[in-house]
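Appendix C: a fully annotated inverse folding record. The material below is reproduced so that readers can follow the format used throughout the book. The structure is listed first as tokens, followed by the designed sequence.
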């Protein structure tokens, strides 16, 4: 098998979804991703032409994980969910995609800025790490 290493940035976005969305997804209803307004905005960014999720012959590539996040807002917070000092659990989808390391800086910055702008949390959780992918070809 002919394989090569490809340097990339791994981008993981923790996206809050409605409880009904998470329940539908856990029940196998993939279309619920498209129906959730926050997730639909994130998917539109992923699917737009650009460096995010670009694998050459495949575009908009992402992994989707389902779960919950937990947190307790401080008295100074302005949370989209929960109240100060109270432990909260947020239904969350983790959207993981990749940006080729050789992408122009403005394409990388543009993709990350679009994700930040679309994210509803006061403190968005978006992880960016350098990685390498093993690819055929």
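Designed amino acids, in order:
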């Amino acid at each position: 098998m002919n394989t090569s290493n490809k340097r990339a940035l791994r981008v993981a976005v923790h996206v809050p979804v409605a409880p009904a969305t998470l329940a539908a997804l856990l029940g196998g209803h993939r279309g619920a991703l498209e129906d959730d307004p926050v997730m639909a905005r994130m998917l539109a960014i992923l699917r737009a032409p650009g460096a995010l999720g670009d694998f050459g012959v495949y575009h908009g590539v992402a992994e989707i994980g389902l779960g919950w996040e937990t947190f307790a807002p401080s008295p100074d917070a302005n949370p989209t969910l929960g109240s100060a000092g109270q432990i909260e659990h947020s239904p969350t989808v983790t959207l993981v995609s990749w940006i080729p390391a050789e992408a122009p800086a403005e394409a990388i910055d543009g993709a990350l800025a679009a994700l930040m702008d679309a994210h509803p949390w006061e403190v968005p959780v978006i992880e960016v790490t350098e990685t390498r992918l093993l690819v055929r070809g």
